[in-house]
Design goal:
The chain is α/β, with parallel strands linked by helices. It has one domain: 3-Layer(aba) Sandwich (Rossmann fold). The protein is globular, with a radius of gyration of 15 Å.
Length: about 180
């Protein structure tokens, strides 16, 4: 099972990027957890460019096409998702890669509810399938934890492992239903 993960932050010391990296460390056997790091390479979305060969866009779409599920962690900026994440999602709107894709949302600041609500709206509009049991909030804001620290934190690591287990079970069920 292949799971792709995207952090909606370009910050070097981002909690959203750290939680994604921690999840890659914690991924159970049988999950190929791929962290997509090309989000900052995407040009600004322009529908007039969709028919052009843009390497960064093709890379994003190609990686997502190979994935069985998508994990998204987004910071909240001005009560919304980050521009760089919205830009990436906009590049996926017209393709088939995202339709019915199982999605787990990770929130690193439980008080940041506006971005999560906006992200839910965008993903639902794009026909993504948000897996509620796999979507979690973990209190990282102000913790100073990096990926290793998150993976070593008993309660947070357990919440992330539970998320990955619920996500893989939902993906497996989805695959089973699609094969019938």
């Amino acid at each position: 099972m292949r799971v792709m993960a995207i952090s909606g932050s370009l910050r070097k010391l981002s909690y959203n990027s750290a939680v994604i990296e921690a999840m890659s460390l914690l991924a159970p056997e049988g999950i190929d957890f791929v962290v997509y790091k090309g989000i900052g390479d995407l040009p600004l979305f322009n529908p007039d460019l969709e028919d052009r060969h843009i390497a960064a866009v093709e890379d994003l779409k190609g990686e997502l096409a190979k994935a069985d599920g998508l994990v998204v962690a987004s910071p909240e900026y001005a009560h919304g998702i980050s521009g760089v994440l919205k830009n990436a999602l906009d590049w996926l709107v017209s393709g088939e890669e995202f339709v019915y894709m199982p999605v787990a949302l990770i929130n690193t600041s439980p008080r940041a509810s506006h971005a999560q609500a906006a992200l839910r709206e965008v993903i639902t509009t794009m026909s993504g399938n948000i897996i509620e049991e796999a979507s979690v909030s973990v209190p990282l804001l102000g913790s100073g934890l990096d990926a290793d620290g998150i993976a070593g934190h008993v309660e947070i690591a357990q919440a992330l492992v539970n998320s990955l287990q619920a996500f893989s079970a939902a993906i497996a069920l989805n695959q089973e239903l699609n094969n019938q």
